[in-house]
Specification:
Distance between the termini: 58 Å
Strand content: under 5%
Oligomer: single chain
CATH superfamily: Ribosomal protein S20
Largest sheet: none
CATH topology: Methane Monooxygenase Hydroxylase, Chain G, domain 1
Number of strands: 0
Structural class: mainly alpha
Shape: elongated
Number of domains: 1
Length: 87
């Protein structure tokens, strides 16, 4: 399948990283959806709690290099805008 052992190793590493990145992105999306659900329900305390969790996960994804720093900034900005509009 692979022409060299180093190519096989690179493929194994890439697969591990891909799964790790996929897991992180999924956690971010889930947290954002839970925040949006709390906003839809007009529950301010729950929304604040979910916002804090979503921001933490987004920052973590950004620091790990899963998300680009501009993407992180844009996501956070949009979440804060929705939260501030609610208040």
């Amino acid at each position: 399948m692979f022409n060299s052992s180093s190519a096989a190793k690179r493929e194994r590493q890439n697969e591990k990283r891909r799964m790790r990145n996929r897991e992180t992105k999924s956690a971010v999306r889930t947290a954002v959806k839970k925040f949006q659900a709390a906003v839809t329900a007009s529950d301010k305390t729950l929304a604040k709690e979910k916002l804090d969790l979503a921001i933490k996960l987004i920052d973590t994804a950004g620091s790990k290099g899963v998300l680009h720093r501009n993407n992180v900034s844009r996501k956070k900005s949009r979440l804060y805008a929705v939260y501030n509009k609610m208040n």
